[in-house]
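Quick illustration for those who missed Monday's session on complexes.
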Amino acid sequence: MPSRSSRWILALVIGSLGLALSSRDRATGEAEAPKDPLAAAVERGRALFQQSWGPGTKSCAVCHAGGKNKLTGARLKAYPKYDKALGKVATGQEKLNEMIQSKSKGTAFALGSAELTALEAFIATLR
Ligand code: HEC
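Prediction with heme C bound:
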């Protein structure tokens, strides 16, 4: 039967071990989340904007980096609006999906997906 004081020491050791473990969990949790989630989304969107969508397909950048179709954040922010190609009042994400399918011959993403939101975040930075 341990004495009263050794039980106290045992309780203290177990308690501080628990504290040490839980702060280590918090530290690894922070290391996994990106430091700047918006900057990470913008970078992901930039990669999507510049990528080819398959053999012989055109990236968004091929048509939208300059010239009369130069894309800016303001042009995407004009949505929701009536879009001729879609034949309805469309959201910005619906227009991005339409472009992915019609002009870039790629596969549309789910509305609200991390990919479409990343594309939106990148296009918002274009002046
Ligand atoms: C072959 C050239 C071409 C490619 C590739 C292309 N687009 Fe477009 N895009 C156009 C043209 C032309 C328009 C204007 C006509 C229309 O709205 O359909 C347009 C319109 C848009 C608009 C509406 C705003 C505006 O400027 O009128 C957005 C947003 C857009 N494109 C995004 C994209 C994204 C994102 C990609 C890549 C997935 C992409 N486009 C690929 C030619 C292209």
